[in-house]
Design brief:
Chain lengths: 109, 116
């Protein structure tokens, strides 16, 4: 079946280091979204990025359709970046999202 | 900014009881979705709808019903709540029209359901 694989499952960094989160998918897509979630919190949309590269402040998302992967790069990480990052893709012509299991990011002082 | 609201925000239910979760969107979106999230996991699709008065089964529909009485409202119904349905439930919407970000989904704040 259609799958979305995120890596790593968890990541611990020192404040100031860069984080690279990966999302791989097994089928053609209509869209790719990245979300941020704090424990017990709601989903905060970080990027809607079906293809190419988008940047927002310290965050950059790159989706390469041919390679069936998307990445989220966080530069100069801060303690407040800690939380879980979820990627979700909408397979071509299906109108629904399939989520990855998430990457839990912990930034230490 | 897209607006999706959910009620209640949290609920405690008894096993075997009926639970109704409500979702309301003011975005004039055609598509609406119900997902569940279990602790430490991603979201899974329960039911969705393309148009009022019609619903579709998602990936994990067993034990759930859905109702879309209008474009703005989408409900998730647990006729006989069970312990395994303890989870956080998220509603989402997206436009069915074309455009640059046509497939972007907008999520509500979630409903935390505990079944005892």
């Amino acid at each position: 079946g259609q799958q979305v694989q995120q890596s790593p499952t968890s990541l611990v960094l020192q404040e100031g280091e860069n984080a690279e989160l990966q999302c791989n998918f097994s089928t053609s897509l209509n869209s790719m979204q990245w979300f941020y979630q704090r424990p017990g919190g709601s989903l905060i949309s970080v990027f809607y990025n079906p293809s190419g590269t988008k940047q927002s402040g310290r965050l950059t998302s790159t989706t390469v359709i041919k390679e069936r992967r998307s990445s989220l790069h966080i530069s100069s990480s801060q303690i407040t970046d800690s939380g879980t990052y979820l990627c979700a893709m909408e397979p071509y012509n299906q109108g629904k999202l399939i989520f990855g299991q998430g990457t839990k990011l912990s930034i230490k002082p | 900014e897209a607006a999706v609201t959910q009620s209640p925000r949290s609920k405690v239910a008894v096993t075997g009881g009926k639970v109704t979760l409500s979702c309301h969107q003011t975005n004039n979106h055609d598509y609406m979705y119900w997902y569940r999230q279990d602790t430490g996991h991603g979201l899974r699709l329960i039911h969705y709808s393309y148009v009022a008065d019609s619903t579709e089964k998602g990936d994990i529909p067993d034990g759930y019903k859905a109702s879309r009485p209008s474009q703005e409202n989408f409900s998730l119904i647990l006729e006989l709540a069970s312990l395994s349905q303890t989870a956080v439930y998220f509603c989402a919407s997206r436009t069915g029209l074309g455009g640059r970000n046509y497939a972007e989904q907008f999520f509500g704040p979630g409903t935390r359901l505990t079944v005892l």
